[in-house]
Amino acid sequence: MAKLVLIRHGQSEWNLSNQFTGWVDVDLSEKGTEEAKEAGRRIKKAGLEFDQAYTSVLTRAIKTLHYALEESDQLWIPETKTWRLNERHYGALQGQNKAEAAKKWGDEQVHIWRRSYDTLPPLLSADDEGSAAKDRRYANLDPRIIPGGENLKVTLERVIPFWEDHIAPDLLDGKNVIIAAHGNSLRALTKYIENISDEDIINLEMTTGEPVVYTFNDKLEVTDKVKLSK
User: Fold this and answer.
1) Of 40, 101, 109, 224, which sits 20 to 30 A from 67 (CA to CA)?
2) Residue 230: pLDDT above 80?
């Protein structure tokens, strides 16, 4: 019975300053670092041992994974980084303060951009200096698939191929897997794993630094779900 642990990265510097982050590579805050370490301590206390780790190509998730594995004495396990586990791309909203954005466009519109399943944010041009097309970590991607903005639906569509090609085969092989990623890429995975409706996924929140443990049977059906809370 394979286990999968999901961890949303610890608080980032832009979480702290209430800015839209998305694909911008922001570091953990001091609190976020401690949240990641605490996640590792809870994992160790629960006796969870992993065979494979996955994370995004963004610093805040990578560091969260490393802190959690270090605290649980598992920093040595195989690790794969992929852009497909990146946070949802917030388009032209990236870098903007959420409260200021609400003043500019209205609370309701910003809420729709943030929480709607299939509404796109204002898109970021590929020519914009903040475009991921100019970032070396995405140099091996077809420029046509580098987003200018995403909703949760689009995020799900780019996460699921990685699930099908890597994560699901690991679990079916009886391996225990840990994923440190982001609020929306993990919400997308959770939607798929639990078959949550488009309407209900809007209300799902992922707590920073809180490990969520799934147990699967040999048909990849969830038999148990536990949050490792304080």
Assistant:
1) 224
2) no
